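Thread: Modeling a multi-component assembly for a lab meeting

Hi all, long-time lurker, first post. My supervisor asked me to bring a structural picture of a complex we are working on to next week's group meeting, and I have zero experience with this. I have the sequence lines for every component (406 residues in total). Could someone generate the structure of the whole assembly? Inputs are pasted exactly as I received them:
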Amino acid sequence: MPFATASQTIGPYWHLLEDPSWADLTRFGAPGERITLTGAVLDGDGKPCADACVEMWQSDPPASDVFPGFGRSNTDGAGMYRFTTVKPGPVAGRGNAQQAPHIALCILSRGLMRGLVTRAYFQGETLNDTDPLLLSIDEPARRGTLIAKPAGAGTWRMDVRLQGDGETVFLDV
Amino acid sequence: MADPTPYRPLTPDTQPPYDAPAYRGTIKRHPKQKLHPLPHTITETTGPRFSAAQFPPLADLTMATGKPAIGERIIVAGTITDEDGRPVPNTMVEIWQANATGRYDHPADQHDAPLDPNFHGDGRVFTDDNGHYRFLTIRPGAYPWPNHRNAWRPNHIHFSYFGPAFATRLVTQMYFPGDPLLAFDPIFHAVPDEQARDRLIAAFDLDITQPDYALGYRFDVVLRGRAATPMEA
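Re: Modeling a multi-component assembly
Sure thing. I ran the full set together rather than chain by chain. Output:
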C-alpha cells in the first residue's frame, strides 16, 4: 500500500499565493459573535517568526456558503498573525465527550519541515475543565499554552512558542 | 453519534523530522517536546471545501499577463490518491515557484537574477473526478540560499494540498529527475526514507509531453488515508 507523500517546508516565499482576505472568515457575511484571534509566533530565542503562514480551521459553526471555516494569515514583522472569525461553540468529542470551543491552528514556515498543529481554546469557558484534550495535558503551565486570553473587546490572544521556555503544546494528529 | 473514523498515523521515516539540523532554519524553530497525542475528532476529520467557482483556477502560469513568460515551458500533471489508492476528486492544489532564472517575484528574494515581468509564479488547479490535475508552467531555475557555503536549492515547484480533512493537509515540493543539486540539498534529504524521498522527484513523461510545445512531467501524490476500522474511544 502506498504511504502518504513526504512533507517539505513551505519556505519563505509562500506569499506568492497569499490572499490577505482569507484571514477574515466573516468576509462572506457569516452571522454570529465576531471575534479576533491574534498572537505572535516566536522561535527558540523568543524572536518573532516574520515569514510564517498560520492556518486555522474550526468545525463549528459548520462551514457554509457564508462561512468558510478555514483561514490563512501571514505573520508580520512582529511575528503576529491575526484572524477575524465567528466564535465557535462546543463540539462533539469522541464517545459521549463534549469538547470546549476551540480553533485548530497549523503553523507552516521556513524552518519547519512539516506543519505544527495546535489548538486555541478560550479562557473562562466552563467546558475547558472537562475538555478531553486539555485534561490529557498534565502540567497546568503546558495546558495554558493552548488557552487564548482576552485582549480587548472581542479580541483573544494566543502566542505560539515553537521551542524552549513556554513551548506551545503541539499535537500529533 | 458514531465517532469519526480517524486518519491513519504517518508511516515512520517517510516524513521529515522537525529537528533536521543540516537545514539550519530548523534549529530554532523545531519543538523540543514530543508531539502530544490527540485521537481524531471532527475538528481533525473535517476540513475546508474550496470550489472552482469561488476560487478561479489558474492552470497556465506562462501567460499570466497575456504575454509569454521567458523560459522552458513544461506541463506538470498527475493524480492525487489516498493511501488506499482511491482518487481524491475536486480538491484544490496550489503551486508557487521561482522563475526561469531562479528568482521569486517576492520582495524577500534578493538573488541577483532578473525578474520576468510576465511571470509571477503562482497557480491553482482542482483535481477532476478521477483525481487528475494538470498545469502549464516554466521550468524553475536553481538559486543560491544562505544555509551553508555554496548552497543551491535544486529546481523545484512548491505544492499545497488540502484533501478532505484538516488531518490530510500537505505542503511539499516537487523536484526534477537527474538534478545534480539533489545530492546536496538538506531539505530534500531531511526525509529519512529513500523511497519516500525519491517520490518527490517528478518523472519525465512522453505521454504528457505535447509535441512541438512543451515537455511533460508526472508528479503523483498520496494523501493520508483513513484507518481501516474506527478506533474505539
